[in-house]
Specification:
heterodimer, B: alpha/beta, Rossmann fold, seven-stranded mixed beta sheet, three-stranded antiparallel beta sheet, 24% helix, 21% strand, globular
Chain lengths: 300, 194
Amino acid sequence: MSRTAENYRGYNFAYLDEQTKRMIRRAILKAIAIPGYQVPFASREMPMPYGWGTGGVQVTAAILGPSDVLKVIDQGADDTTNAVSIRQFFEKTAGVETTTETEKATVIQTRHRIPEAKLQGHQVLVYQVPIPEPLRFLEPRETETRTLHALAEYGLMHVRLYEDIAQHGHIAKTYDYPVLVAHRYVMAPSPIPKFDNPKMHESAALQLFGAGREKRIYAIPPHTKVVSLDFEDHPFEATKFEQPCALCGATDSYLDEVITDDKGGRMFVCSDTHHCESRRAEGHVGRLGTPAAPVTEAAE
Amino acid sequence: MSLAGFDNPVLDQQATFRAVMQALAEPGRILPAGARVGDASPLGPVARAIALSLLDFEVQFHLAPSLAEAEGDITFHTGSRRTDRRDDAEFAFVTLARDALDLAAYAQGTPDYPDRSTTVIIKVESLAGGPAMTIRGPGIAGTRRLEIPGLPADFAAQWAANAGRAPLGVDLIFVTNEAVLGLPRSTRIIEEAR
């Protein structure tokens, strides 16, 4: 306790005031009870701009306790600006232990990725969501989309996917690919690559989604059916990569393209930095990777 | 009679909420309550901890007749208002052994806003040892057994009606003096022991 008290001097634990936390907590409970339904909540201004994860931060602040271990990723990476800032934010305001190891974390806040390691039942995955309404670009009126959800009328979305097939020969949407949750609500999974969609299905971990600017919270309980929308003759297919990770040789992870020079040189590496690092520590080496130094030598 | 609130309101409320959150995320699983406060309350220490953690001036609560004495205590600690109308309450408190349970009488939400429904906190003696029911739904890998003793004879029928209203309907949180168990509207009873 003393360590915590030291760290959040001047702020309430995890920054938010208790009344705000109660309001968010009530919304989270409803979101879990109605999988995929977007619960409106009184999103607060946070000490960061909209678009930097204000929704995710509020959800994390409302659930976080002193015994939690927090991991924050941005596009799979633990070491990018957004991830580092949010991790430091909670180190300062809540004094919680943070980690970059997926397996050690109890709460993982994420922007646009699901970790490659299979999540467990005691873990909670908190997504930062920019546009929570999957129908928004098809129907701008909130009153109308609300009615469409009430009637489970999702024809618009199927037409949108069909138009892709008509124009491109396949469904061209590669991220924020819409899903049907527990046979009822069509839901935006936040801009995760469609590569990650299958990981949401029957995940052992609770998944919470927070959209700060749009003021919505929604959830997928553990072990819930999450189906990516598709057609019988055009089934959903997760993205596949033609080559393995250049650093760790993984063939089953989501890859980022990295430009290496101005002569067209490029490499593909794991977007999940922890996954890549732990594979290299296990001795896996990719095309451009160097064998990982044993831990004892690295320390010197 | 006045009862004290939490020793450490911030952390005790968080622990209480996390237990309730996990209970609704894993329906039918018996979980230790996050915190207990005020053994002498007619609500019991766990239901009272939930009241003190989730209620405030933004919501109204309803008390079943057996718990009427708890009004002053809840109002004092939370600033929440008691309502006589069950369909006006965000939270309701019931003692299973002493009050009638009528799930349809509470707020069910609306098709546009299914979240505007009542969360019913039900005080029970025990969460295990009763006639077994098999449940399934989001939050449950396969199926799970529910064995709450003392449920009314028509509970399965009431719950089927509640499920029939999905995504509308009420969510239940059963509490003993030590543990919590969640039954959100998304859970289905698929088999009932006779």
